[in-house]
Amino acid sequence: MECLSEFIKKKRNEQGLSKRKLAEAAGISHTEIYRLENGERKSPSPMVLVSIAKVLSINPVEILVAAKYLDDNCIDKDSLCLIDLYKCLSTEEKQDVLRYIDFIKSKH
Length: 108
Fold this sequence. Notes:
mainly alpha
């Protein structure tokens, strides 16, 4: 896994955001983004990282792994994908998914 500074810079560039735009949208100072991307800020708060993740449209777990708050070996990539997909469903669709899971479990 790449280091946090590289991770944030790469994701920000993929979104076409300047440091100022990212900072503004995340509710933090642009100097904080500058320090993060230059590796000067070694231990940002998880809340700051989650705010950045939301703006970058990434799963917060990814940025917490890059910051070494979570161990990459403990993260199940398939589960992260499912969580992201689940979040996009309507309430009725989520209920359908849960019913289907219950149905699958009942077959065992």
